[in-house]
Write a structure and sequence with these properties.
Blueprint lengths: L1 E17 L13 E13 L8 H19 L3 E6 L10 H17 L3 E4 L4 E9 L6 E5 L12 E4 L5 E3 L10 H10 L12 H8 L1 E3 L8 E3 L1 H19 L5 E3 L5 E3 L3 H8 L7 E4 L2 E5 L4 H8 L11 E10 L15 E11 L2 H21 L5 E7 H6 L1 H11 L3 E6 L6 E10 L5 E10 L2 H5 L3 E2 L5 E2 L2 E6 L4 H17 L15 E5 L5 H13 L4 E3 L6 H10 L4 E5 L1 H6 L1 E6 L4 E6 H12 L21
Parallel strand pairs: 2-3, 3-4, 11-15, 17-18, 24-25, 24-26
Antiparallel strand pairs: 1-2, 1-5, 1-6, 7-8, 7-18, 9-10, 12-14, 13-14, 15-16, 16-23, 17-19, 19-20, 20-23, 21-22, 26-27, 27-28
Helix pairs in contact: 1-2, 5-12, 8-10
């Protein structure tokens, strides 16, 4: 059985004409009906309901009584509706189910009306606008044994579909890939990813003289990492809560019970070492340091909600075969934000803002996420309207992964995945609602009545770890190149934004002054003064994906008009220097600016290639 349930401010219908086939005998006075502030249920009784009509009616009654209680209504109108399924029950069976459902709802104290079966009807409906006002309910009288009991798909309509019932070919491509890889364990196409060449181009490399999974960042990579770190801070500030930025150690003593309990949650992936006969661990993220610090703060309900941010070097002892450059490392940088809230309800409202911000940021790259909601069944059942608000931001299905009650310190943990060039899900952003660590670490606040309470904590990395954000940028470039487009880095993130190429030594002083002026404004401009041909220097600049390449010869100096190669549009434009500055201002608006941290002259850079 399928039921489209609508909380209606007003509803009225009129049965006008018998439909072909079976239809009920209905006297003239029974062919009209109406309802005010009640639940209108458009119902399709299906073939699967015929085997146990009573059980189907009873399960539907259980579902509708619960929904009516949540909506605070006591009136229900059952409206036969054959358009929700292609697998219709026989008319006689459908009528019996509808009649049993009406009697069961009446016996539980609801006022019930049923529209005629087998008639063409005119109707008017005015739906109340709130998260629970519209929902599609799927009632199955006999539960089939499920091959994937811990997984399901939540549709934007609110319908929960078992993995076994999914029509994979009707799902959006990226979401279908997520289900196939994460649940069905199907292999992807494989191949060598393009992004690895991009990593080498900009100096993201493994450090061979360290432990496995540790990276090094060359001069250009270091600029990109610093920019991404500063941008993560800007994103956190955009949430509109008071923020405090902190720094701390990466090593914690397992003699302290809160540290030990928290570390045990991560098992063998926790880095451990022994120092002066003490067992120590390296932090998984910023949690240990922030919680160890905040437990000593005097916090009032007036301070909440507030956030604490740290760009934390983080350590996870991943297996050697799982290590992926810029994606899965043993040491990485996490822009960790924790938001402390008075209650679970306040945390859920704040989580909506976090969720919207996470989506806003990936969409700025021209990408979108497909999500996994790791969630306890009790939290899902009790807070379904909150979960549906999250899904409405996504405007696509989400994968539900039901986790055991009480196993984790969180009640929901959302993983935001891009589907990369090789059709692999790659988690980038994340958030979780933590109901356990405040008590574990002794973090309290004083409420309005002077009583100590434990705050609820949101954990999030809005853009993901810095390396994973760079991974998303490079993978976006890889997809662009694969489809015949221009691989590029957003201008604000490019290590060098403008490169000046003097036609000869006679223009060197002129372009140096232009570069110095741009650098003074917070842009990053350099000058290729090498003894190479103009053509080779232009090619080298293009290899480095520099957004704006400016070749300056005698005519440009004389006329004061620059010839600018714009990577994004693959065009050569004539601009004045002021127009170039305006273009740069527009490109980097809303993003951080960092000065050039490499020599302006390429001839002064060791190992340039």
């Amino acid at each position: 059985m399928k039921i489209l349930a609508i909380h209606a401010e007003e509803f009225e219908y009129e049965a006008r004409q018998r439909a072909p086939g079976f239809s009920e005998e209905v006297p003239e006075e029974k062919r009209r009906g109406s309802l005010r502030n009640g639940l209108v249920c458009f119902i399709t009784v299906e073939k699967c309901d015929e085997a146990n009509e009573a059980k189907a009616a009873l399960k539907a009654a259980d579902d509708l009584v619960e929904l009516a209680e949540r909506l605070g209504v006591d009136k229900v109108l059952l409206y036969p509706y054959a358009h929700l399924s292609d697998e219709l029950a026989k008319p006689e069976s459908a009528i019996r189910v509808l009649d049993m459902l009406a009697r069961e709802l009446s016996s539980r104290g609801l006022k019930v009306e049923r529209a005629p079966f087998g008639w063409y009807k005119r109707f008017y409906i005015k739906c109340l606008g709130h998260p629970l006002a519209e929902s599609l309910r799927v009632i199955r009288p006999v539960e089939a044994k499920r091959a994937y009991p811990d997984y399901a798909v939540l549709m934007p309509s609110g319908e929960v579909v078992a993995i076994e019932e999914l029509k994979l070919d009707q799902l959006p491509k990226d979401f279908r890939i997520l289900v196939e890889r994460e649940v069905l364990k199907k292999e992807g196409p494989g191949g060598k990813p393009r992004y690895l060449a991009y990593c080498r181009k900009f100096g993201f490399e493994w450090e061979s003289m360290s432990d496995l999974g540790h990276m090094r960042y060359g001069p250009e990579a270091a600029i990109m990492m610093d920019l991404a770190g500063e941008y993560a801070w800007m994103c956190a500030k955009d949430l509109g809560v008071p923020l405090l930025r902190v720094k701390g150690t990466n090593m914690f003593n397992l003699e302290y019970e809160p540290i030990k309990e928290h570390a045990n949650l991560f098992g063998e992936r926790m880095y451990s070492l022994e120092v002066d006969d003490k067992k120590m661990i390296l932090r998984f993220a910023a949690c240990h340091q922030q919680f160890a610090m905040i437990k000593d703060w005097n916090i009032s309900y007036k301070h909440l909600p507030f956030g604490v941010f740290e760009l934390a070097d983080s350590y996870r002892l991943e297996q050697p075969g799982e290590l992926v450059l810029c994606f899965r490392m043993r040491r990485f940088y996490m822009p960790d934000l924790h938001i402390f809230c008075r209650s679970l309800s306040e945390a859920m409202e704040m989580a909506i803002k976090v969720h919207e911000k996470i989506y806003e940021e990936i969409r700025k790259l021209g990408r979108d996420y497909v999500s996994i909601y790791n969630i306890t069944r009790s939290f899902f059942n009790s807070n379904r309207d909150f979960v549906l608000r999250l899904v409405k931001t996504e405007k696509k299905p989400v994968l539900l992964h039901f986790v055991p009650e009480g196993k984790y310190y969180w009640v929901i943990n959302v993983e935001y995945n891009i589907i990369d060039e090789l059709e692999r899900p790659r988690e980038i952003g994340t958030f979780q609602i933590d109901i356990g660590n405040a008590k574990r670490f002794g973090i309290t606040y004083v409420d309005e009545n002077g009583e100590k309470k434990y705050p609820v904590i949101i954990h999030t990395a809005i853009i993901g770890s810095l390396e994973r954000y760079i991974y998303a940028v490079f993978d976006t470039a890889a997809k662009a190149e694969a489809s015949g487009g221009v691989p590029m880095i957003p201008t604000w993130l490019a290590p060098v934004q403008v490169r000046f190429i003097p036609y000869s030594r006679e223009q060197l002083d002129y372009v140096l002054k232009l570069a110095e002026e741009l650098n003074a404004l917070g842009f990053r401009a350099d000058v290729d003064d090498r003894e190479e041909s103009v053509a080779k220097r232009v090619r080298d600049a293009e290899v480095k994906w520099i957004p704006y390449i400016v070749v300056v010869g005698p005519k440009e100096v004389e006329k004061g008009v620059l010839s600018v190669r714009v990577r994004k549009s693959r065009t050569v434009l004539q601009m004045t220097f002021n127009e170039l500055k305006s273009e740069l201002e527009s490109e980097v608006k809303g993003y951080p600016r960092l000065s050039l941290s490499i020599p302006v002259l390429l001839s002064r850079r060791p190992g340039y290639r």
